[in-house]
Every structure is written in structure tokens, then in C-alpha cells.
């Protein structure tokens, strides 16, 4: 009986201690970062977790994953590269798997910004291919976006833009469309 009483007292002590250490917190939804994440010498890595678009010239729907990395050559201006991995469903035809790589330039606008968010513009040019088929294409993009910093180094982003792809550089056929993406970036400090 003594062991049972000791066990109940010990269990009660654990429950009381656990209740005494309960901490009520709210999730962090923004961070006042100023210009610190986009300073010269810093790095950014991340990408779009979903890029959804509809082509005007063909009845097709696509979704892409775009991991990217960039380096800030000056305050607010980053250059880098992104991979383009995607899936395209074409009405009445075979599905297409897309791939490619595109160097990009991203500029964070000083106007209209707050201590926890920034507007930016991004342009890219690269090459893209697809399977089935072996077309290699020229790919161009012009996007605008909004980055909201949830911590000192992580930002959630939304981008919208116009994209162009030419299946064969020597022919006049091309593909254009609008796209929207949601993603994130991690900003890493460089050496000072």
C-alpha cells in the first residue's frame, strides 16, 4: 500500500509541475526587419511551393515547383538562378513534364514598404524542356510580388506575372500566359 501511495503522490507532483510550467504564447505573424535581410552580401534561398497557371493559346493547366537561390549584389538587388520543375495537363492529349533553369534578377522596391514587408519585381530568362517530346525552349518571365517577413530571416511571398515560352526558337509559334505563385524565402546573412 505504501508503494501505491508513493506512486500516486509522485504522479500528482508531475501533473502539478507540468501545469505550473504552461506558457501561453501566440504564433509570430510578422517581424520588424527593416532593410537587414536584403542588404548587400546576404543570400536568399527558397522558392515557390506552387505555381498555378492557365495558358491562353492552348487549353492547358500547369503547376510548377521553382526552387531558387540568390545573392544580393547591392542593397535590395539580388541575382540568382531558379530551377523550373512542372506538370502540365493538356485537354485531350498526353500529360507533359516540364524542366528548365533560369537566371533571375530581383529588385525590392523601397517605396510602399513597411518594416515587416516589401514589394519586389523579378525578371528571368532561361531554357526549358519537356517530356514527352524533346523541345528545348526559350523561357522569359516578368513578375511582381509581395514578401511578408514572419521572422527576421523567413518571408512568405505571393507573386503574379506574365510568362512566355517559345517551343522552337526558329519558328513563330509561342506560348504565353499569366501565373500566380505562393512561396517562401529564407534570408541568410553574408560575411561582414
From TrEMBL:
Q: What is this protein called?
A: Outer membrane protein beta-barrel domain-containing protein
What is the species of this protein?
Sphingobacterium oryzagri
Recite the UniProt keywords alphabetically. Answer: Signal
Superkingdom of the source species: Bacteria
Mind telling me which InterPro entries this protein's record contains? Answer: OMP/PagP_B-barrel
Residues in the signal sequence:
1-20
Amino acid at each position: 500500500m505504501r508503494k501505491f501511495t508513493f506512486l500516486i503522490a509522485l504522479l500528482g507532483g508531475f501533473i502539478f509541475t507540468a501545469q505550473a510550467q504552461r506558457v501561453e504564447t501566440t504564433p509570430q505573424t510578422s517581424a520588424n526587419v527593416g532593410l537587414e535581410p536584403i542588404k548587400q552580401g546576404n543570400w536568399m534561398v527558397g522558392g515557390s511551393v506552387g505555381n498555378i497557371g492557365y495558358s491562353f493559346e492552348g487549353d492547358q493547366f500547369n503547376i510548377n515547383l521553382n526552387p531558387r537561390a540568390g545573392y544580393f549584389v547591392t542593397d535590395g538587388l539580388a541575382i540568382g538562378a531558379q530551377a523550373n520543375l512542372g506538370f502540365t495537363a493538356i485537354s485531350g492529349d498526353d500529360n507533359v513534364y516540364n524542366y528548365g533553369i533560369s537566371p533571375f534578377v530581383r529588385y525590392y522596391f523601397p517605396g510602399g514598404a513597411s518594416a515587416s514587408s516589401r514589394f519586389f519585381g523579378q525578371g528571368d530568362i532561361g531554357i526549358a524542356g519537356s517530356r514527352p517530346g524533346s523541345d528545348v525552349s526559350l523561357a522569359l518571365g516578368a513578375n511582381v510580388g509581395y514578401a511578408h517577413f514572419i521572422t527576421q530571416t523567413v518571408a512568405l511571398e505571393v507573386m503574379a506575372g506574365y510568362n512566355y515560352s517559345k517551343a522552337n526558337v526558329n519558328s513563330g509559334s509561342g506560348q504565353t500566359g499569366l501565373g500566380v505563385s505562393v512561396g517562401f524565402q529564407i534570408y541568410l546573412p553574408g560575411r561582414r
